[in-house]
Amino acid sequence: MRKRREIVEQGFRELQGRIIADLEKADGKSRFGTDIWERPGGGGGITRLLTKGNIIEKGGVNFSAVFGATPDAIRNAFQIGAEDFFASGVSIVIHPENPLVPIIHMNVRYFELSDGKAWFGGGIDLTPAYVVHEDGIEFHLALKEVCDQFNPEWYNRYKVNADHYFRIKHRNECRGIGGIFYDRLNASEDKDFEELWNFSLAVGNTFAPIYTRLMKKYGNSPWNEKQKFWQLHRRSRYVEFNLVYDAGTKFGLETNGRTESILMSMPPMACWESNFTPEPGSDEEKSQQYFSNPVEWV
Amino acid sequence: MRKRREIVEQGFRELQGRIIADLEKADGKSRFGTDIWERPGGGGGITRLLTKGNIIEKGGVNFSAVFGATPDAIRNAFQIGAEDFFASGVSIVIHPENPLVPIIHMNVRYFELSDGKAWFGGGIDLTPAYVVHEDGIEFHLALKEVCDQFNPEWYNRYKVNADHYFRIKHRNECRGIGGIFYDRLNASEDKDFEELWNFSLAVGNTFAPIYTRLMKKYGNSPWNEKQKFWQLHRRSRYVEFNLVYDAGTKFGLETNGRTESILMSMPPMACWESNFTPEPGSDEEKSQQYFSNPVEWV
């Protein structure tokens, strides 16, 4: 049998390629640039960034596979000893230009120690400025369908995880309409590894169909200044979440990670309007309600 | 003798009023709005915000004086027991519209426990998008002059503090050209309290002359799109510093502080351009040099 890390590295690398092909096709204008980097301690990655597309204003689809002596920060986080580590993943954040197209985020990741312990983590979540109820249902149904192929309990469990994880506590709201979020799923046993690897790929493969459908549905819709303002306002909440709470971002910045790759999640532009409250009855206020009170979509 | 906390509360309240009067006069267009709030556990504050002025795009000058049972987060931070607390301060962040006018930040604060222990903290720092060397010297000389009235060692000590404190570690740069930063200066003895209170007021009183001079010098200078972009780019670094590192911001958000008052420090608009590097020899690159390598101004 091939080594797990080879399977994962190649699988994630190919996943990155497939997603990029689908996104470029759906955008129809810009192509992803390629920035190949090496990690001094071992491994490296491919940061791919698209800017100023037809629909995608700024989007990053990053792959990395790194290994070596386990840094102290990871030792502390995982409470482990002197083992070497291997970590690989695909991370995506897409900021569309049109306020009617949601921001989307996906991450699938694998972490392995030289003593054989291994974990998977990841998820997909959607951050529309304007929440369209039927799209929320369709999004969550797609995620439930992926989860249900593996375990009928996973969707509910990981959906609730996401509602908690993507919470902006100081605003008392969620950053979007959630999705699924799972972390540290134990893959030390071969049969768990196989199941969770297939699950990770299934999550990864559901990203492009979900998002390209939204790109097509709203990417060419007309929008106005009021909608643009609301998008820039919601983007400021995205910034706040990522810099204040997001575990991957904080961990990456604290451990001297590759700043430009970590912060590709930042929106191209955002605005902070103090004390802004949407008008009662407006579309903006209706969307705000979704962020304030997580919904049972399915 | 009047109680210390009454002296401090009244003094900071008056300082807020003086600074607002000077800023409104220098701006010449907008006035500061007033938002008076109460803290459920005791005390409250006055948040004053000016937006869309002639020169000030968004500026907050906040006063607060709060007291009561010491929250757990503060107990842990100060490693104290069951004492009650009193805290008061004035906090300012001004974001000008014109990219040639620097962002400025000031904070003066006092913290006292019911057992008589007391501390002062604070500082002023300047964040120009475009660093003008002579302005940097003048700014630091003004701070040195204030410090020298009290202790000839303070300017150097607090200048170095500021260079360390306002460092954006993940960018390997400072957010601006520093200033002075001091924290937990022991004011438990009456003579220390008196000296440090006078020092706090002297720092507070130097804010308006420093900043209104810069408003007058650059507030009406013409600027172009390239300069605006650079300002929005530098503002993104300001956001990153405040959300990732600033102790007051982090502490406020973690302890359920008043989010809109804490985050009045956010710029009205900011942009993140991936992998942006200023052109060699450009004014932007010259300014970047100052952020990358702190200067001995005096």
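Residues 50 and 208 of chain A are 15 Å apart (CA to CA).
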